Amino acid sequence: MKFIDEAKIQVIAGKGGDGSASFRREKYIPKGGPDGGDGGRGGSVYAVADCNINTLVEFRYTRIFKAQKGENGRGAQCYGKGGEDLTIRVPVGTVFTDLDSGEVVADLAENGQTVCLARGGKGGLGNIHFKSSTNRAPRQHTLGEPGEEFELGLELKVLADVGLLGMPNAGKSTFIRAVSAARPKVADYPFTTLAPNLGVVRVDSERSFVIADIPGLIEGAAEGAGLGHQFLRHLQRTRLLLHLVDISPRWEGGDPVREARAIVEELKKYDQALYEKPRWLVLNKLDMVDEAEREAVVAKFVADYGWDGPVFAISALDGTGCSALTYAVMDYLDTQARPAAEVDAPAEPAGD
Fold it and tell me: Which positions bind GTP (predicted)?
């Protein structure tokens, strides 16, 4: 199934029921006083984050979400029934944006987090509210208020502790298969990953972290080359980036240092905050380098690249160095606080 990480929907809260203008008409009271009841409140539209949902594919087919309107008031002081609320279930990590104002309405970053997207209209008043000593037979009543209505954009940002960054075929999918139970597609051609994959890396019985593998980034992505930037948003919630670089011998004459710099430059063009995230260098496909030359190849790459941060040399295919890397990542994450965005209070309802 194609991964859907963006959608546009329309949410319409229910209109409030109209108040009633009614009078008592009984056998022995032919001209009784007012007894019109109030209209019921319109239903509201809510969104709730559900960890059992992974994509926004449902919103490709259903784009209008309308809550029930309130019932009208009736005679004999009968109040109208309130409209039923409508609840939309979305993946954890969904961000709602008002398309008219560009304002972020809600960011559902925790399972079960709920937000009101559109409030139902208030019910109208019946004529019993307008009775007075000088107005014994009021015919006034009010109509129900319309419910709120918004055009919203939905954007899914997966929740992961660690994000993998690199060129197509750098070995990101192979790495996530090696360290977790995730099974993304692996093949010897570029762009085998067409959707973000999540894997849980468990270093022992009570310590684990979530890693995200996104489609490869290439030079020129800012201009739409390859898959462009459409999946880089998934790295914005991560606490650490692993930049995977293929250091295997290049029969076609490719330059891994130039490619690594190009990826980082594309990252900077996309989002300065993402560029400034903690980033480790992971040199992959060590199994394809002669064992006697590995240390020299790694040292030469680091020197040519001008890198002074953490460096790990691994082979995702045979597992060399993967265990040491995952333990180092776990130790690092244990010392880091989660981003404030993940522990914020639930967002305020739209329109308030």
Answer: 166-173, 191-195, 213-216, 284-287, 315-317
